[in-house]
Amino acid sequence: FLEGKKLKEQKEYEPAVAKLQECLAVDGKFVYALHAIVQCLTELARHEEAISYGKQLIEFEPNDNFSYIALSRAYQRAGMIPEAEHMMALGHQVAARGGK
Known about the structure:
Layout: H1 2-9, H2 13-26, H3 31-43, H4 47-60, H5 65-77, H6 81-96
Helix pairs in contact: 1-2, 2-3, 3-4, 3-5, 4-5, 5-6
């Protein structure tokens, strides 16, 4: 994970995704890896994949407003503005309820 995170921070998104996917092969619910993958795929304009991983992230972390923000950003970059706004609103609701 740390290697993938470092690659993401260096904006080496393709190799970061590969490393982070290795993490998910070991633990498919490793939310920190999912978060990072969504961010990398969004930067790579691989919108469908980013959205798919973002949905998984919310499934595993429904009380984390940052999960909704990550998915919202993926939707926004894909040009899916109503979906992006909906996810952002859900994220705000989670935050208002005291989510992470």
